[in-house]
Amino acid sequence: MTDVLDKTDNLALTRRVAGALDLGLPKGARIIVAMSGGVDSSVTAALCHYAGYDVVGVTLQLYDHGVAIQKKGACCAGQDIHDARRVAEALGIPHYVLDYENRFSDAVMEDFADTYLAGATPIPCVRCNERVKFKDLLETARDLGGAAMATGHYIAREIGDSGKAELRRAADADRDQSYFLFTTTQDQLDFLRFPLGHLPKPEVRAIAAELGLVVADKPDSQDICFVPEGKYTAVVERLRPGAAEPGEIVHVDGTVMGTHPGVIHYTVGQRRGLGIATGDPLYVVKLDADKKQVVVGPREALTTKVIHLKEANWLGDEAVPEGGMRVAVKVRSTRPPEIATLRRDGDRLSVVLDAPEDGVSPGQACVFYTPDDAHSRVLGGGWIASTEAA
């Protein structure tokens, strides 16, 4: 295959990084790269290509912004696919577009709407990795003869002392995406590769610029892909017309403070936009979808000590002992890991925080890490089902 970019002599950074890339596979092995049209997945494809692997790019058609917000000509997915195709052409690698829109709608968008209506706060990016990219796409990668599938996620995969693959936080702490990948199973991890895990973001952009890729300066996406401009309620109301019912705003002491247009308009920890006037600041403490209530209270009412989990995934070397074990946990993607005790009661896991945290919301994730100073290894995680106040 002709390497279009080999005509350029000044590829020192690209060749140095690609030369150090070791995917644990013989050179020439086929690597299926999930190409989203962004700079990270584009550089992932480039590094695998220059490292001597047989690279095939695959892009998923997942959604249509025009459909999501009922606005014509707003399909950003189309531009992303176009960008991925141009990068593949520049690298001289095969590229395929797969229509996963129905799968994505059923597995991610419907869950997003149902979770919001239940009064919880969803993380659709985790569901997408769990139910689409690392499930359906991974199986497609095998069908295409791939020895592995590579993505542009900022997370590292290393072989541990036990000889099995381990998931570790990215070297660039500001870009680490381990919180969104806690549902990755051991079988999936054996097949996956993450070439950007040890690279800082500026170096990734420098490689894209050195190669002259059209996405070198493309901004990072700040929103959920199918929720343009962060308008969550617009998407929920479109998917579930009329489902957002008004109800009461109730203080934790039982006092009715006012009314609201629907629980989907609120999140745990919210302070502004409550529409009630009091002398002291009040925060959303709980959303009770069954009673159609938004429960508010003082800041201290947000403090959580115990977290009960569901759908837990474990990547540790040994099962969680009945007596529990020490771990570090993240309850929000933007928060650092904090020390806690992970407890097991049969098949159920719960977390007891050493230092209580504010704003822990059902529907979010609680991700486990090793309790060492670096909290480097990802041990799994679970979805927050309920909490107990401190």
Give structural notes.
This protein has 390 residues and is α/β, with parallel strands linked by helices. The chain folds into 3 domains: 4-152 and 195-230, Rossmann fold, CATH 3.40.50.620; 245-301, SH3 type barrels; 302-389, Beta Barrel (Elongation Factor Tu (Ef-tu), domain 3). Helix content is 26%, strand content 27%. It has helices spanning 12-20, 39-50, 65-68, 76-91, 101-117, 124-143, 186-191, 201-211, 232-239; strands at residues 30-34, 54-61, 95-99, 148-150, 155-159, 165-169, 192-193, 247-251, 256-260, 283-288, 293-297, 304-314, 325-330, 338-345, 348-357, 365-369, 377-389. The strands form 3 sheets. It has a 6-stranded antiparallel barrel with strand order 12-15-14-13-16-17. Strand 14 and strand 15 (348-357) form a beta hairpin. The protein is globular.
The strand order across the widest sheet is 12-15-14-13-16-17
Class from secondary-structure proportions = alpha/beta
CATH homology superfamily name of the largest domain: HUPs
The major sheet is characterized as:
6 strands, antiparallel, barrel
Number of discrete domains: 3
- The stretches of 5 or more residues where confidence is low (pLDDT under 50) are 1-7, 68-76
The helix/strand series, from N terminus to C terminus, equals HEHEHHEHHEEEHEHHEEEEEEEEEE
GO molecular function, one term: tRNA binding
Main location: cytoplasm
InterPro entries: MnmA-like, MnmA-like_C, MnmA-like_central, MnmA-like_central_sf, Rossmann-like_a/b/a_fold
Pfam family, one: tRNA_Me_trans_C
